[in-house]
Amino acid sequence: GEVTAAVRATTLMLDGTALDALTARRRLGRRGRFTSAVGVGGPLTGLLTHELRALVRRRSRLLSALLGCLAALAAGLLLGPLVGVVLTCIAGLVLARLSGGGLTAWVATPGLRRALPAHPGAVAAVLAVAPFALVGVGSSLALLPLGLPPWAPVAVAAGVTAAAVRAAEPPPPELGLVV
Questions:
Q1: Would you say 122 and 146 are in contact if contact means Cβ atoms under 8 Å apart?
Q2: What is the CA angle 76-160-156, rounded to 5?
Q3: pLDDT tens digits, one per residue of 143-169
């Protein structure tokens, strides 16, 4: 069949183009035959599934950052609520940077933004779910026992997630070298 004809043509011409064309045609023919179990449901669901699996792989670093939020609570109880809020924001920024790997890559890589078929705002919202939720949990642990209002952890989570996104953006090219 096809394989023997390609091998014969390759041998006679001392050129591997016929075999390369055959393997490329077969590879393209197989593409799309098997459904992927990861991220079934579209690109946004796939991104969310991938981010959650990445969080599971980085759980020890995330737990240590959550312990930083508890340390901010202890400092806030000892030194006052203002110190607790400032230290919670710092610990939350560390937590957002650790948990927002996909969001950081999305913001910092223009080629990735062009390659994904989904709307950029929807992708950014899906990738911001994990950092926002983890910072919300950490800031709730640190701020609610200090007697702050219930909206304070949400505000800290939104602000810290926005700061993590802003920190991931590359500087403008016209800025040049700043000394």
A1: no
A2: 50
A3: 999 999 999 999 999 999 999 888 877
Query: What does the angle CA 71 – CA 72 – CA 76 come to, to the nearest 5 degrees?
Result: 120
Instruction: Identify the burial level of 17 via C-beta atoms within 10 angstroms of its C-beta, where 0-12 means exposed, 13-18 middle and 19 or more buried.
Output: exposed
Q: What per-residue confidence (pLDDT) applies to 31?
A: 58
**What would the pLDDT profile of 28-58 be if each residue is shown by its tens digit?**
666 555 455 554 567 778 778 888 888 888 8
Q: How far apart are CA 61 and CA 59, in angstroms?
A: 6
Is the backbone of residue 147 left (phi > 0), alpha (psi -120 to 50) or beta?
left
The residues near 152 (Cβ < 8 Å, ≥ 6 apart) are 85, 139, 143, 144
**Cα separation, 7 vs 3, whole angstroms:** 6
Q: What's the alpha-carbon Rg for the chain, to the nearest Å?
A: 25
Burial of 115 per CB tally in 10 Å (0-12, 13-18, 19+)? exposed
Cα→Cα distances 63→30, 52, 72, 101, Å = 43, 15, 14, 16
